[in-house]
Amino acid sequence: MSLRTRLFNIYWTLRGAIAPSLRYSQYWYEEALKRYVTPSVEWVEIGCGHAVLPSWRANEERQLVKTCKAIFGIDYDLPSLKAHRNISKKLRGDVTKLPFRNGAFDLVTANMVVEHLDHPDEQFREISRILKPNGVFLFHTPNAYGYGVILSKIVPEWLKGKLIYLLEGRQEHDVFPTHYKANTEAQVKALAQANGFEVLQLDLIPTDAIFAMFPPLAALELLWIRLLMTQPFRNLRTNMIVALRKSAKPYHVALG
């Protein structure tokens, strides 16, 4: 058994003792996806990278992809796009100018991508453009008030890639700049209203410990996460799952 596996086993024991009802946020996102992916749905995954779901959910991802009528993946990072394991229709492109006609899709999704948007008003407008009336934009992203984002802002840029590799096992070439311009409840609601969306779901949720590989830190972090699971600390939870529905009525962009 590797050291990493041993440390994770210690973490699961700690989690079971301190926060037994805690769930990894990706499982919440997967459940939300399953509600919207149906046999009639035409779907585009924004910032698809090399997977829709985490690697250990590959079978569930394959089933989701098979369920829908059609799926396209779009990402600016070509190596990630080429490595995608389940989406066959892939395009290299920018969210600011999506290569699709108006009203092409029933569903647009983004898993841990919205935090990377540098001009979210333009990008939400572009997502609205390619959605059919009553189409849904579903995304999973960090909450800007969560401790993970706050910590990331104080870590020097030169250290971030190395730290992410140590904590998550993610290579430095798979780490991209973050902006957090659509990562609070207020920001999401304002962007939704400005771009013809209705908020269907806006859930703030906790997720697993960042320092899972370091048992003493993980124990302290889990105590904090247990507090986050209570209603008074809701606004400080680390992650957001949001579903926005495009209005069936035309909307007008204010010019000024």
Description of the structure:
The protein has a single domain, classed as Rossmann fold (3-Layer(aba) Sandwich), CATH 3.40.50. It is 38% helix and 20% strand. It contains nine helices and seven strands, in the order ααβαβαββαβαααβαβ. A seven-stranded mixed sheet has the order 3-2-1-4-5-7-6, with helices on both faces. Helix 1 packs parallel to helix 9. The mean pLDDT is 91.
Sheet with most strands: strand arrangement: 3-2-1-4-5-7-6
CATH class: Alpha Beta
* Mean of pLDDT: 91
Described by the principal axes of the CA atoms, the overall outline is: globular
Q: Report helical residue fraction.
A: 25-40%
Number of helices: 9
Class based on secondary structure composition and strand pairing:
alpha/beta
The third-level CATH topology is Rossmann fold
The number of domains is 1
Poorly predicted parts: none
CATH architecture name? 3-Layer(aba) Sandwich
Q: State the separation between the terminal residues, measured CA to CA.
A: 62 Å
Which terms summarize this structure?
7-stranded mixed β-sheet, 7 strands, single chain, alpha/beta, Rossmann fold
Question: Which SSEs are present, and which pair or pack?
Answer:
Elements: H1 3-18, H2 25-36, E1 42-46, H3 58-67, E2 70-75, H4 78-82, E3 89-92, E4 105-111, H5 120-130, E5 131-142, H6 147-154, H7 157-168, H8 185-194, E6 197-205, H9 215-228, E7 239-246
Parallel strand pairs: 1-2, 1-4, 2-3, 4-5
Antiparallel strand pairs: 5-7, 6-7
InterPro entries: Methyltransf_11, SAM-dependent_MTases_sf
Pfam families: Methyltransf_11
Domain Methyltransferase type: 45-139
